């Protein structure tokens, strides 16, 4: 770690101080890296410390932000302050976005163009509007008025939380035989991509007929910090669809092989029709009304010697691509039934070089500690 001398300190603005953001603050404060906290913000307030002298202990920052006179969150002000700081002392400045906000995601190009790096577990920018994504990966090459070279982004925690999924796929693609393969060397990626849905079905399949109800397990997944801010975003398959879109866009040549040239996942939804537009609070309150429907599915699967698992698949065959997110039955002897625990993700990369036995990554795929760890590991890539 000698390369991390004080002269290499980086300035970090932490936007989003919920489950993941709080845990990241803890890791930033406790770990021995030369990282200055240049700003903190939630949806309402923002504190700037761009003189670079800030030092917090773990409770002070929350108290400071709660103070009534803290100014409103303003991303333009934040970008200008970080840009000026990076320019003034030639150290790197980073926006860490721990929100699930599209507003913050839409602002990334302006931060990158101003020479500010972006690190985030927020999936929105990489799975939403294709033109935004192209602006992120292509960039304007401009310096956004600061004269600094364009910033770079890291998003490891957007898929599999802290598990090395994005970096592994990048390595597989970058080392593929580009001359003869349209797809890097990756043929198929499949697995369980949702920590929430993994936890729910791992627990639920233990308790056939008489075990805990579906809604009570969802409640625990939320309390454990696995769910999205609105748990309906997990149960309707949107979160898995976003992760599949992020990975699909990293695969050269896949988009051209999909109908209409873009990723359009139609995930199986587990959200009852009546709760489709419910806010998070109403959603959780009313979910127990629908426990019977999913219990019936679970018990039917059990009668066939199977369990339910929510899986995602990205595949190319004969020049055609497909991307799917769906609820499937697996025999109780299948790896998806026997080897998963808690919020585990399991992701298999089928590639030419890995032949008949896929490269497999498994472990906790949701939770504040492992997600913040992925964010922290991205920050360390900037040193
Ligand atoms: N939890 C997990 O296991 C994983 C989470 N992620 C991703 O991490 C991100 C954060 O998740 P989590 O911590 O659980 O979410 P929370 O809902 O707990 O926290 C979100 C935070 O973002 C703030 N926020 C929302 N909108 C804005 C805005 N426009 N400007 C500034 N701040 C804003 C909220 O402020 P306020 O408090 O004022 O509402 C809150 O502090 C999400 O994108 C999620 O998908 C990724 C992988 C795993
Ligand atoms: N809600 C997500 C969190 C991580 O991306 C999940 O359950 O997987
Ligand atoms: Na990851």
Topology:
Elements: E1 10-15, H1 19-30, E2 35-41, E3 46-48, H2 60-66, H3 75-89, E4 93-97, H4 102-106, H5 108-113, E5 117-119, H6 124-127, H7 130-138, E6 153-154, H8 166-174, E7 182-192, H9 195-204, H10 214-223, H11 232-235, H12 238-249, H13 280-286, H14 291-303, E8 306-317, E9 320-331, H15 335-338, E10 344-351, E11 359-364, H16 368-380
Parallel strand pairs: 1-2, 1-4, 4-5, 5-6
Antiparallel strand pairs: 2-3, 7-8, 7-10, 8-9, 10-11
Helix pairs in contact: 1-16, 9-10
This protein binds NADPH dihydro-nicotinamide-adenine-dinucleotide phosphate, the ligand N[C@@H](CC=O)C(=O)O and sodium ion.
Describe the protein's architecture and organization.
L-homoserine binds at residue 228. Its EC number is 1.1.1.3. Residues 180-380 form the Homoserine dehydrogenase catalytic domain. The active site is at residue 243. The chain is α/β, with parallel strands linked by helices and 383 residues long. The chain has two domains: 6-159 and 370-381, Rossmann fold (3-Layer(aba) Sandwich), CATH 3.40.50; 165-365, Dihydrodipicolinate Reductase, domain 2. 37% of the residues lie in helices and 20% in strands. It has helices at 19-30, 60-66, 75-89, 102-106, 108-113, 124-127, 130-138, 166-174, 195-204, 214-223, 232-235, 238-249, 280-286, 291-303, 335-338, 368-380; strands at residues 10-15, 35-41, 46-48, 93-97, 117-119, 153-154, 182-192, 306-317, 320-331, 344-351, 359-364. It has a six-stranded mixed sheet, sandwiched between helices. Strand 10 and strand 11 form a beta hairpin. The chain is globular and about 65 Å long. Bound molecules: NADPH dihydro-nicotinamide-adenine-dinucleotide phosphate, the ligand N[C@@H](CC=O)C(=O)O and sodium ion.
């Amino acid at each position: 770690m000698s390369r991390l001398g004080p002269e290499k300190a980086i300035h970090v603005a932490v936007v989003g101080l919920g489950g993941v953001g709080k845990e990241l603050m803890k890791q930033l404060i406790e770990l021995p890296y030369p990282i200055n906290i240049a700003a903190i913000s939630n949806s309402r307030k923002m504190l700037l410390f761009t003189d670079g002298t800030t030092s917090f202990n773990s409770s002070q920052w929350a108290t400071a932000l709660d103070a009534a006179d803290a100014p409103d969150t303003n991303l333009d002000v934040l970008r200008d302050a970080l840009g000026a700081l990076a320019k003034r002392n030639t150290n790197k400045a980073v926006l860490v976005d721990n929100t699930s906000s599209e507003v913050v995601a839409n602002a990334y190009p302006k931060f990158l163009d101003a020479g500010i790096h972006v690190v985030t577990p927020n999936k929105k920018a990489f799975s939403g509007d294709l033109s935004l994504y192209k602006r992120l990966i292509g960039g304007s090459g401009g310096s956004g008025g600061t004269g600094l070279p364009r910033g770079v982004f890291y998003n490891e925690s957007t898929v599999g939380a802290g598990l090395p999924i994005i970096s592994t796929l990048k390595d597989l693609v970058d080392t593929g035989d580009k001359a003869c393969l349209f797809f890097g060397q990756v043929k198929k990626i499949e697995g369980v991509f949702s920590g929430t849905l993994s936890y729910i079905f791992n627990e639920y399949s233990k308790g056939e007929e008489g075990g805990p109800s579906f809604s009570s397990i969802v409640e625990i997944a939320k309390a454990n910090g696995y769910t999205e801010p609105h748990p309906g975003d997990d149960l309707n398959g949107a979160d898995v669809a976003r992760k599949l879109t992020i990975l699909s866009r990293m695969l050269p040549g896949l988009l051209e092989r999909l109908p209409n040239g873009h990723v359009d996942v139609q995930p199986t939804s587990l959200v009852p029709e009546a709760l489709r537009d419910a806010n998070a609070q109403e959603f959780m309150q009313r979910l127990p009304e629908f426990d019977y429907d999913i219990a019936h599915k679970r018990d039917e699967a059990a009668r066939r010697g199977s369990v339910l698992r929510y899986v995602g698949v990205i595949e190319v065959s004969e020049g055609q691509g497909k991307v799917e997110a769906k609820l499937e039955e697996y025999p109780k002897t299948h790896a998806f039934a026997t080897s998963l625990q808690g919020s585990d993700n399991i992701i298999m990369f089928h590639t030419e070089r890995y032949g008949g036995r896929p490269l497999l990554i498994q472990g906790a795929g949701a939770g504040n500690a492992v997600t913040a760890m992925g964010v922290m590991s991205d920050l360390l890539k900037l040193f």
